[in-house]
Design goal:
Three copies of one chain form a homotrimer. Chain A is an alpha/beta fold. Chain A is built from six helices and 37 strands. Chain A has two domains: 100 residues, Udp-n-acetylmuramoylalanyl-d-glutamate--2,6- Diaminopimelate Ligase, Chain: A, domain 1; 148 residues, 3 Solenoid (UDP N-Acetylglucosamine Acyltransferase, domain 1).
Chain lengths: 350, 350, 350
């Protein structure tokens, strides 16, 4: 693809082309980060990039650059650099779109592999691809254009919408409902039984888990992540919510739209999470906690009580982020503080 | 099922029926939480429920209620409410039993699917169900009534007892021994090799892991959880111990009876855990630590040294829970404390 | 195997035989820990073992012992004990080697199981074993002596070297490259798409993940662990690096040689990790952080900024280990410290 074609493509997209220079109009063969780029690669610098990345601009071997338009330093630099460039409102979105042009994901339906085992009364829409050694349980429905990779197991009575991508060896339990355009990554488990046991004098009594899991449209679930069904009712993951690898979502959790949960997050049963909530890696959320819209929790935060919309929280138990930063800064001075207190005490008790 | 039938069934169970009112004797079609219940649903309120749940009683649309007998406020309320109810010593157990009546899990043996691959010298008892694309290694035994779902891989020389439920795509390694009535959830791994490497001048030297994993009766293992075998000897999970999703149990760990380990708990090699221990989500336990009977660790606790029986611990490194609560309360005052110390210091050094 | 044969075998190995006593020359049938050993077992005591293990020497029922040569107390004791022994520079390595003699892992090629599904243009070298219900995608290569267990899914265009051991139901995505002598444990996922989404006014925009994962020689990946591919470029795991269970390695991470990452470690995207780095259980590493060679992080550490080579760090956010130990010791005195400060304040404000 030549550089001018990329410009034309980006103009159709969401990244906001502001200006560009076509001088060499190089053939673009690949995309790469600034430090790894070679001749005929395209690379990008995001808005507000740190200095160590900005400094790479002058030494990068990339043949074309996607650059932030709202950055005077960069705009000045474009006057000097030899390679072709595009100034954009959203250079990261431009890079994502460019990757789509350069590396189209040609998901062609391969039909139903002869080794797949399909139950009775299964409804498979046109254009569905079902890989080798897949098992689909009775009464399950799979919408148009969905791709089910090798080794996937879908239990009975599951409803899977259109254009889903279900990766190898993942498991979807009975009663689960997936919307359209979801991605289930490899070895994820959707709709396993919630962890519900009642103590009795005779050991644990199991609380039957007869509820279901619902994934709305455009939900993505990372490799090895697990989303449990509840005893009654539903576990619901809201539209466009993205879940990274090895995340645990307990029974009866509900999340709003467009949340992001990074790897190894754990959300205990019944937690209610608003729209646009971002939980960084290894965050934990306790049973039945309510988290308002647009809350952000930094890595390893433990949220044990409700959090109001818009708050940024950190630490365990979670504190407002700015307070936590100050507390942490003082935590590392604790030996000095303790020593000062001992000295004051001694002096005062004379 | 009609309401009076549920009463009769509960009388046979463990929940302790104290009193009831049959007036409408509704048909009960489903079970639901108080806030989600519709007409013809049954719902429950547990002992010592918080106010926000208790307040739902008056507005719930449920047609029948399971209520705590030991609660004067509730007993008074039963005189006023229109719907039928049962007063119970253990309403949560009653709800679990009611779910069993309403949603019987009809696990019927489906025999051995023709796509399953069974090794040589495998002993399969009557009533065993083996799903599609399962692999069973040589010399393995499977007890009566056990269900092995699609895609499961059982290596050689495994002993599986009666009435186990082994969910899709889980893996059981050579030498593992499962008792009766265990549940292995999807994508769990039982008996993988422990993480044992000895540093040498030439890199890591692998310590062979030739031990085995033993799960006693009624053990449940969550989706994606991993239980490793040791270099020599056994990793043992005690009877009735319940393990949630994405839990790691290291090589050579032993646990007692009726423990509960919530999601994402990690227990390092050689730890010895007593009976009735409860570890909340994301708890970590260090190598070879001994934890006494009935210890409770709250979420994210890091247990790095032995804990005596009956203790409740929190934080990292673990402290007695009450102490930790007070320390945490003061942690968030650290900026003030540090400021006060600086001021005192200044004043005193004048 | 008789005891004298073990001595002869160990002399060929890396453990440094210093002295030995052959008196009974017992038949050795098995290996065990000191406390569990029975007659005809061999056991060992490592260098610098704690007292509770040393005390087991006198009561162990083992028929032969591997003991540290650099320990005067032990050397004295060898003069008194009845059983045969070997003094070694590295008794733990000797034990590892002895396990190899006693329990040889006879991995014999079983050829390609007839239920395996092999794509087009797949190159399979001699001596490769492919288990039941395996799927191998088009254009993939598998080197000599590699064993692929039942249920594994390998996507298209994967390169797998020689003598790899790939356990059941693991998944290897397109473009991944494995060196020689790697071990992929059950249900691990290599090369899943990185978690890359760009916020837009219209929800999340996916950053295509078109990079690849490279595992160098002798890499081991634990059960259920996930290693993601990046948007562009490579995620690289260095030679001889060992990864435990349920570990998450984000997109674009690079690690050096001979690192060890314990269970449930999470490494966020773009982190750069040196040689010989050891991360204990549940450690988290933030985006793009650089960790120098031979850094050690104790359990649950959260590394949010660069760490210089050779440092030992602990806590969250990570501090030098010794400082953190002192801060933690003072954390549990916070209630007293706060009280002392209040009293001083009161006295001073009189």
């Amino acid at each position: 693809m030549q550089f001018n074609e990329i410009i034309e493509n980006l103009k159709q997209g969401q990244s906001g082309v502001v200006d560009f220079k076509i001088k060499n109009n190089p053939v673009i063969l690949a995309a790469a980060s600034l430090d790894k780029a070679k001749v005929n690669d395209i690379s990008f610098l995001d808005n507000n990039s740190p200095l160590n990345l900005r400094n790479l601009l002058e030494i990068s071997k990339a043949s074309a650059l996607l650059l932030p338009a709202n950055d005077n330093y960069i705009v000045e630099m474009t006057k000097k650099i030899q390679v072709d460039w595009i100034l954009l409102k959203e250079p990261k979105i431009a890079f994502a779109e460019t990757l789509e042009f350069l590396y189209p994901s040609n998901i062609e339906s391969e039909g139903i592999h002869k080794s797949a085992v399909i139950g009775t009364n299964v409804k498979i829409s046109p254009g569905v691809s079902i890989g080798a050694n897949v098992y689909i349980g009775d009464n399950t429905e799979i919408g148009a254009g969905t791709v089910v990779h090798a080794g996937v197991v879908v239990y009975k009575n599951v409803s899977i919408g259109a254009k889903n991508l279900i990766h190898a060896n993942s498991v979807i339990h009975s009663g689960s409902t997936l919307g359209d355009e979801c991605v289930i990554n490899a070895n994820a488990v959707i709709g396993g039984e919630g962890f519900g046991f009642v103590p009795t004098s005779n050991g644990w009594k199991k609380m039957p888990q007869v509820g279901i899991v619902i994934l709305k449209n455009k939900v993505e679930v990372g490799s090895g992540s697990t989303i449990d069904r509840p005893s009654v009712g539903e576990t619901i993951i809201g539209e466009d919510t993205k879940i990274d690898n090895l995340v645990q979502i307990g029974h009866g959790v509900t999340t709003g739209k467009s949340c992001a949960m990074a790897a190894q997050v754990g959300i205990a049963g019944g937690a209610q999470i608003g729209d646009g909530v971002i939980l960084a890696g290894q965050v934990g959320v306790s049973n039945r906690v309510k988290i308002g819209d647009r809350v952000i929790a930094s890595s390893k935060t433990g949220i044990v009580s409700n959090v109001e919309a818009g708050k940024v929280v950190s630490g365990f138990p979670a504190l407002p982020n700015k307070l936590w930063l100050r507390c942490s800064a003082n935590f590392k001075k604790l030996p000095e503080i303790a020593k000062a207190v001992r000295q004051l005490d001694r002096r005062n008790s004379r």
